[in-house]
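Table S2 (text version). Query chain:
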Amino acid sequence: MATLVGAVDQGTSSTRFLVFSPTSNEVIACHQKELNQTFPKEGWVQMDPIELLDSVVECIEKTVAALIEKGYTTSDVKAIGITNQRETTVVWDRNTGLPLHDAIVWLDARTAQTVQELIDKTPTKTKEHFMQVCGLPISTYFSGVKMRWLLDHSTEVSEAERQHSLMFGTVDSWLLWNLTGGINGGVHVTDVTNASRTMLMNINTLKWDQEMCQFFGISPEILPKICSSSEVYGTMVSGVLKGVKFAGCLGDQQAALVGQRCFDKGDAKNTYGTGCFLLYNTGENAVFSTHGLLTTVGYQLGADSAPVYALEGSIAIAGACVRWLRDNLGIIKDSSDIEELAASVSDTGGVYFVPAFSGLFAPYWQSDARGVICGLTQYTTSAHIARAALEAVCFQTQEVLDAMNSDAGITLQTLLVDGGMTTNELLMKLQADLTGIEVVKRSMAETTALGAAMAAGHAVGVWNISGVPKTCVDDKRYLPNISDEDREKRVRKWKDAVQRSMHWST
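Corresponding structure-token output:
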């Protein structure tokens, strides 16, 4: 009999279910389903919570079918971990189990006015007022702000609150509640990494903070129980994996930190997906940034284990920019086409693309910024714009890296990378050029799902996390290939373009 561990990877663009071998870290089987997003108004991004749930069930069924074809059995799967898009906010009725509103996605910017009202309400009238409590600035990004908006603008949500039937959660909570029984005894839980993205959890005590809940006007009764990232939360109540334990839960970026084996203080990784997220392990002490970074929980691998913290630089738009070029402008047919198009020119022809579609996240936290393309001439082609889009991802990462080096007091010499965009060889070369340091891509591409599986396997005693090697001989390495002078010149032009994106939305 084999020993396997499953992982739900519920992201912004797609849902996947992967099954791993704890001994080899190998993916045995997987299935992926692309998801729909809706954009009802400028800056709004929504998803259907029922579609999210159904996609998870479908991916589990099809992955298990593939497992059985390979000679495995369902009893070989000993546990399931969940990793999810963070901050995306779901509200539902505890009596009917039905969503009360579409999920408000993490990069949604509708709460800009709510943010300003909240900032004005603080004694210091600054977005950083609660950083020492929750590690986060007041921003459109975080779940507590989205929840406040829902209470203010949705009749269904406010009525459910009045009737004491309202339930709140990030995507992990919504999935776990449904898959463990829903209205028939489903568990309403989240883990410390997801809770640390709400603005409602005290970053030091790892509990819902009374002051923060009162400030936002959010009742603790609607909130899930906060658990560690690696423990048994409940069991699957139906379907092909009925009876299997859910035993791991991490927000997607923290799952990648675990999957990259960033277990030592000073380890860092950058994940390239819809957005881009650079996390730096600061050990068992929370470090508070003075350069626009977030303080977050990296992981807590067991209820009796100490939490490990991280500094995070969050970039809203990375792969989403490529999707925009595909879906809105139609200059590429498939997202993978961008590499060939961008590589058809040797440079951007002086074009700089700041994809601030929903404002700028780290290190600026400027919700009124909007996307700009600078330097267009009659010489400019779609290839130059495509290359500028890839460079934008790299420039944003470079700015976050600078902030992280300043906060940590140590200059990173190597950047570990993962995520869907890392299959783009040109992007990886540009990243090395524009950061001036070595970029290392793991031979195991599925580090986010791997991290969730490791946490689940650890909880049920089938995965020896300490035995997982940090590096592998077939990791791919990219070295800088431009001069410091050229890099500095291009970074200056990028910063100029960023300033031109500021204060556009009023």
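Notes on Table S2: The first strand starts at residue 4 and ends at 10. The chain has a mean pLDDT of 93.
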